[in-house]
Amino acid sequence: MKEIFLFLSSTKTNVSKFVGLFTKSKTTHSALCLNGKFDYMYTFGRKTLKPFPAGFVHENVRKNMLAVQGKCYCEVYRLEIEDENYQSLLAEIEKYEAEIEKYKYALLGAAFCWFGIKKTFKYKRFCSQFVANLLHDGAKIELPRHTSLMRPKDFLTLPNIELVYSGTIQELGEKVDSGELVFKRFDD
Prior knowledge:
The chain is an alpha+beta fold.
């Protein structure tokens, strides 16, 4: 078995506030972490501190956008998956990595999601759709909705999902760095 983590958060950006207003959810952003250090998470979001350009990015709770938003709320959920599904997940991530420059943020896709319209684009994703794609296509996890309709709160309905942290983004990094919050290592 392998351990993976869903990182859900809300920031004080206008985009996050707007999404939160419509979804009425405590979290508005999602990312996938494989190592439990939260220093290399996969998602779709801002590439700089400005809203655009946005696309496929790697986030770190200690740097860039998340460090600036350190006082903001986040939740971390653990999922365990079979070894072969973990390998499939890695292969799915590699597909995105191979064409990273082509991927853009799907602002229109997020709007379709809000209206409950299934719509996919070849090289565009929004954060929860991307995480849903990785979980469904890579880790072979059955989802409650079509990947293009997934919102961060929808991940909470997955079987065997376990809340392992809730608090600020900054405190998450501090607790992991100090050893107060330790997750099993599966990559040894």
